[in-house]
């Protein structure tokens, strides 16, 4: 690999951005496609988009008979959960099994205890303080489940601004309507606010914390694999 391509690829990796190294199998020439690059007009556009979604490297063939190997580099998907509640206790192990790097943030020390959340996942601090050192990005999902605007609103705003692939919030439709007004007052557009999955999770009739956790994880995986527009 050319040094300039390697340097560019490492830059994308360090910033938690996806990139694909495209190698022409006949000539050996290489190019780097960043996820932020416009794909319109690229002969491999459809394949590139699918590989960005799947995260899997592999050989592809173009309509003209040429073949290319796509070496895919995508960040480990991350789930940031705002709220060390019962739903989170069920969601955490399931999300880890599904391959997500999980962080739980809650300033309420009555909930955010090592006894309830073992391992190095818990940040018993205000979200605004944690997110200063751990910025959100396009490969992060955010689930706000405290039901407390003082804790949930700031990370929701930051997640929408950062383009997180999934943004969900616990609460009834009436609760969400009040949330919408607060977020508008904070300067977010209706298009941004419409990205929030609220009430949170897939509509499976979930009732218990464990069932709600299943519904939330299902929606997160759907957004990650199919795109934020997935229903």
TrEMBL record:
It comes from the Bacteria. InterPro entries: MoCofactor_Util/Proc, XdhC_Rossmann_dom. Gene3D superfamilies: NAD(P)-binding Rossmann-like Domain (3.40.50.720). Residues 79-220 form the XdhC Rossmann domain. Pfam families: XdhC_C. PANTHER family: ALDEHYDE OXIDOREDUCTASE MOLYBDENUM COFACTOR ASSEMBLY PROTEIN (PTHR30388), MOLYBDENUM COFACTOR INSERTION CHAPERONE PAOD (PTHR30388:SF4). This is Xanthine dehydrogenase accessory factor.
